[in-house]
Amino acid sequence: MAYYLTLLIFVAPIVTSIVLGSEMLAVVGVLSFFLVIRLMFYVSTYFLVFPFGDPYGQFGVLRVFDQTSHISIIFPNIPPFAQSQYLAVLTNQYSQWPGFQVLTLSFSRVTGMPLLESAMAITMILDVGWFTVSYALVRKVLARTIVNLPNAVALSMAIVTALPTTEIPSYFKYDFPATLFLLASVLLLLRVYDNHDFKVMIPLTILSVAITVTHSISSLFWVLLLVPFALWTTVPRLFITLSSKIPFVLGKSIQWPKFTRQPPLYALFVFALLSFFSWSAFYAVYIVKYSSVSTGKILSSFSLGALSGSRLSSNQSHIGSLTPKWILDLLYVRDHVFLGLLLAGLAALILVPALVRRAHLKILLLTVAVITVVTEFSGALNFGDRALLLFAPLIGFFTIAPLTVLGSRWPRLGKAVVVSLMIMLVFAAGVGLWASSYAPTGLYMQGADPSTASGRPVTWPGVASYMSFSGRQDCILTNEIYVTSMSIPVDEWNISKMIGNARPTAGCLVVVYPGLFSAVNSNVSSFGFGEPYSPYNGFSPSLFYNHLYNNTDRIFSTREATIYYYS
């Protein structure tokens, strides 16, 4: 109750500053809310652990690059879809887009900070950078649209901050800096058309390279985003003809920028496209192998039912037993209100020509809408609401567009809806952090041990001491999917296997975490077809563990883990 009351007290000034305060005061209020929500997990765990599992795989790649002093693919000969050597597959995949590791290593070398502290610090720096770039982008977009809401920029940023798909707390993961690079590229793209500034083509080219070597799906979305602008540059009359023939898309009163010469965006598009394919063909070969296996699965995954499986509508399903029902109901309402605003905003963009009259801005927003809709209706291509995460500031425009239309006709009603929406979204973001298992329920208990807050021990003293004198081991079995680089030395990752279809053999270590049986019960991949690991068909957890307990020697045991040796 103390937490809920504190959250309500915090929500009140945020909403008040947006509705009644100056823009600067409102933006500072939203920024404070943004930082508190995203840093809560890190502060509560004394910056000792990462949330989620993926950052540990990223950190493992960072350690390898630091140890070898060069960038290379880790475990290049590992099968890309190995079901039993998950750790090796994970590091192999992450090492093929080393942009984030290069950035973090450079920060560590310049500041002299250890790797873990550098990884934590770079995440916080990217948080502030993301908010700054997002604010500049939202301000630029709303300055060229007809918006009659109080502090529309701060309102949009508050909605974006409270997005149900926003990663809270922030990841140490390669898609985070790629998102920042993508938003900065969109900001420079608008500058080309708003200010006729062709000098930004140089930083745009640099950012294209940065996106390519940092994250695959971000690079692909950047290429798709450039497609209509490249066409506009090469065949400008086509767009003007479409504007007159199909007025409900662009509008008859659309304002086309007048250039003395067309910007060379077709060249940027060709460069980005060639960079994407070249990097995939000669370095990031994982995506080629992945595409050869998954293309049919992706095409067959498009359906209306895909929405029901997305994190937007089902991100509470796995924690229902830990969360009060009223919180689940609130998050359910929040998700559907947000989805309704998105659809209404898209309709307003198309049906209300006066809302956006700048041709380049409307083309940009329509392209973002198409990418988002296509990916959301694909169970395999979505990758966790990827488009919503990448284009969050622009998605914020779609959420306030219907409020703008409502406020233009009924100002008082529009203001009341804005206040109610803000209270619900900001409060839901606060309780959603606790309720969505991002922070364990025991995190706020007096005397909680921060080293176990992520659900993963920071060290493996038993494995470390045993491996130091036991000689060669054929495998390490574990029921923890995300065994971390802090737990097992990097050079031992290629002998680590998941409990499942890998049976214990002579010389094996088996590490069991009490209560962590996700590997056999719920490790269905979010990619829609069980990659890079699949459910273990015909595998009985009870038989495996009974066999383990009866036929192995227990060599190390704590409340967090028990280590067995199969002799």
Would you kindly provide a written description of the structure presented here, covering whatever features stand out?
The protein has 567 residues and is mostly helical. Helices cover 59% and strands 4% of the residues. It contains 23 helices and five strands. The chain has helices at 2-20, 23-44, 54-68, 86-94, 99-111, 115-142, 152-161, 175-195, 201-212, 216-234, 236-245, 265-282, 285-300, 306-309, 311-314, 325-351, 359-376, 386-390, 392-409, 411-435, 461-467, 518-521, 541-551; strands spanning 476-478, 496-498, 508-512, 553-557, 562-566. Strands 2-1-3-5-4 form a five-stranded mixed beta sheet. The longest helix has 28 residues, at 115-142. It is globular, with a radius of gyration of 25 Å. It starts with a helix and ends with a strand. The relative contact order is 0.12.
Defining traits:
single chain; 567 residues; mainly alpha; 5 strands; globular
